[in-house]
């Protein structure tokens, strides 16, 4: 029996019934793609095409076509990699950690967030793959496979190898989790297709749903698997960005070697992930008319997560600055002085403004419940998080221990091109998802229709 | 809307028998403490001193280059300047460490309540009053800390010695001199650390103010029965959490990290927080279980205990995560200025066995014992795990504070155990007598029905 306190806001508005849920969410799967969808798809594919050209050029000519140099051996590639991996944290956080914390509001947003997670992780993976240059040998560099290349063997002491394991595990579990949630919803679409007499759709979605019949026993198993996957995913959410942070923190480079990195990177990842979820969902909810399911209250709660994680990141920035001074280590002190005052100060202050200062606007209720403000700020946050990684990576590298090696980094068209490639891929994949898959978890939303719907006047007795 | 379950208000009565038991613990603590003190005075040290010396030689050879700069420069205080008796130092160190540890438990009581309000948690109505009762320890810990600081500062905080800041002196320490503003601003290094004291007073003052305000709203809600007090507490709790987010880190730097004045770690603030937080959760759970044993808190059933168990399980892992991240990154980078901290703790008795015990008590045991669903729901299991966590984190704090103060002369003896029992019994006397002041749960809490229908 579910009881909901009167102080809570409703999670589904507009007096929806269980039947309405099926209809409202299956609608866009069943209809023809709109012209808006085609336009968006065309733009995404054009960007993807240009990116693909840049990637082919890169693979043909080698990493030299990027703007990297001897001093700055890592720049946009790893910046973009970390940025995308970070974005890929929100989905599993929502579906796993919020499930463990019994946050019912996750139910309208988890599906889209998980899809976004999976696409973002794929985007992230392209950067280390491309950086290999000779991609076709990548298996031997990234996995401990016996080979005939002499001494070629992975380095188990390297956090880059830990990354391979952490991210591939995370990707696999997220994918299984996401797909498992889709199964009952695919069955709903199949059943509706049967009623509508659309045989092709019925058989496709029947295969997708593994012939789901929805018996009580099946639901019981479904729920226990969901709980187990949530338990497995929770440490994974933390481990992935922890290990990404160790790519930097295990090295003895000023600005990189700092013990707060693991939890601070995890907080930053959730921060940017939620921002991207908001960017996508604000559009989805408008285009698909899902305002009764993804309510202003949902948006407000996501904005609150953004304030919390943004403030944690802010505390971490200040802690780093403080300890750089307090430690009395000249190198560390200089690295931070250079960040704040040096030639990349513009990047540092962009980061500070976008990540720490602007999210504080969400303390104002009017702003965190405004769609326009949320949309703008969600993009600002992601710009800020890109700068965070850029600042950490490039400002620490460009001032080498040897002043004669000091230099700057300038991206070439191919740095930019590969970044665009991932954008093209990400949006094309998300558009396909939004068209052919139910963007909201119907089964879960139905389970709270009774307890968390908006109370209409006749049943609001207490 | 599901039917409303009607419950009647519960009041805790602090029975003389319970009080007597706590006084007995206090008495045992005082007895052990005095005995330990006598042994320490007459022994002039303790039996582990010899071992410690050997290990010290080893470790100082291993990290010779650092120690010249770091440990050696901190060691000179006792070598050339005023000589405090080892037993006095040991007493001071133990007092400081216990007070920081129990201050944390008190503040976590309030932090727990604030989290429940800010996150609008529905399950926790039956345990919020336990958290707020623990908060009554905050002012006591604050006053004790201030007094202790004035008595013990030269022995605990190396940075308080004025000769470190004297540029012409033989003992001038350029690294500590650079840190002077953090302690002494706006005054000169080596004078009175006004900034440090200001922070201590400010933190305890503000924490206590939030405690009073949140508690007042709880009491008013009981009488007036509107939800407005709940909403007020949501706002207050949020503001408190912001303040606590910043102040808990700075407090950890001030009261613990600055003992090893040369050493630094950006993670340290969150490490201390993680340790406090999981200890506080264990204390809340243990008090809830005791109250249930005494026939109170019928509204807290195995579902609520399950949640508390999950919290302890999760945050034991979280603490381990923080511990491991800090350790691994320092180990991996192998920078002498940083590794010296772990060398001191891993190669000297008794810190070395505590170093490993720490991981067993605070990770291995809670992880294995609380793994299953049933374990988290059984009072008997919680009565086993909570004390393990509490004792485990007491050792954690012991190892954070003592090596920096006592160098190689630290030990866990009757003195330390006695003092811990004294603090524990006083803390519980305060917490239980505070529990009598308010009903055990808010009968007008808007989340009460959710909590009563809580089923997992």
Q: Assign a percent range to the helix content of chain B.
A: over 70%
Largest interface: A-B, 39 and 46 residues
Number of strands of chain B: 0
Shape of chain B: globular
Biggest sheet of chain B, open or closed, and with what strands and sense?
none
Number of helices of chain B: 18
Order of helices and strands of chain B: HHHHHHHHHHHHHHHHHH
Number of helices of chain A: 17
Tell me the structural class of chain A.
Answer: mainly alpha
Could you state the order of secondary-structure elements of chain A as H and E?
A: HHHHHHHHHHHHHHHHH
Number of separate structural domains of chain B: 1
Contiguous low-pLDDT stretches of chain B (5 residues minimum) are 45-80
- Give the strand content of chain A: under 5%
Low-confidence stretches of chain A: 457-462
In angstroms, what is the radius of gyration of chain B?
Answer: 23 Å
Distance between the termini of chain B: 19 Å
Number of strands of chain A: 0
Shape of chain A: globular
Query: pLDDT average of chain A, as an integer?
Result: 92
Largest β sheet strand count, sense and barrel closure of chain A: none
Our Rg estimate of chain A from Cα atoms comes to: 23 Å
Descriptive report:
The complex is a heterodimer of chains A (462) and B (456). Chain A is an all-alpha fold. Chain A has 17 helices and no strands. Residues 457-462 of chain A have low confidence and may be disordered. Chain B is mainly alpha-helical and 456 residues long. Chain B is built from 18 helices and no strands. The relative contact order of chain B is 0.18. Chains A and B meet through α9, α10 and α11 of A and α8, α10, α11, α12 and α18 of B.
Which key phrases capture this entry?
heterodimer, A: 462 residues, mainly alpha, B: 456 residues, 18 helices, 0% strand
List the helices and strands and how they pair.
The complex is a heterodimer of chains A (462) and B (456).
Chain A: H1 18-30, H2 35-61, H3 76-87, H4 90-100, H5 110-131, H6 138-142, H7 159-196, H8 199-208, H9 216-249, H10 261-287, H11 296-326, H12 330-341, H13 345-357, H14 365-368, H15 371-398, H16 413-436, H17 442-452
Helix pairs in contact in A: 1-17, 2-16, 3-5, 3-10, 3-15, 4-5, 4-9, 5-7, 5-10, 5-16, 7-8, 7-9, 9-10, 10-11, 10-15, 11-12, 12-13, 13-15
Chain B: H1 16-43, H2 49-62, H3 64-69, H4 71-80, H5 86-118, H6 125-134, H7 137-156, H8 174-184, H9 194-224, H10 228-255, H11 268-293, H12 302-333, H13 336-346, H14 351-369, H15 373-377, H16 379-406, H17 414-435, H18 448-452
